[in-house]
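Could you help me review a protein record that somebody else here produced? This is what I was given.
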Amino acid sequence: MEMTKVELLFPKDMVQFVVNNDSEMKLKQNALLLYPYIDGNVISYGKAAELLSINKFDLINLYGKMGFAYHNISIEEVEDDAQVVKALREEANDSSF
């Protein structure tokens, strides 16, 4: 992956947590920088994974370990979807006779 240098400003006491040589921590930091763009539907998980040079499913798993849900839907949406499936099943059963 081609890298470029970007200058960022951080509070002085925070630098010790930002600058490190741990490759796993660097991946997490970069993934966290991309997450708002995924959440805002600016880029996809696939594009973010591509930018990070990792597999999409590894990225989804990484976000999951950090507490970010892959699917961000409400219980009402789940219940609505369940009602649609139930209605379609009933319709399919009625039309088969």
In short: The chain has a mean pLDDT of 89. The domain at 22-95 is CATH 1.10.10 (Arc Repressor Mutant, subunit A). DSSP finds five helices and no strands in the chain.
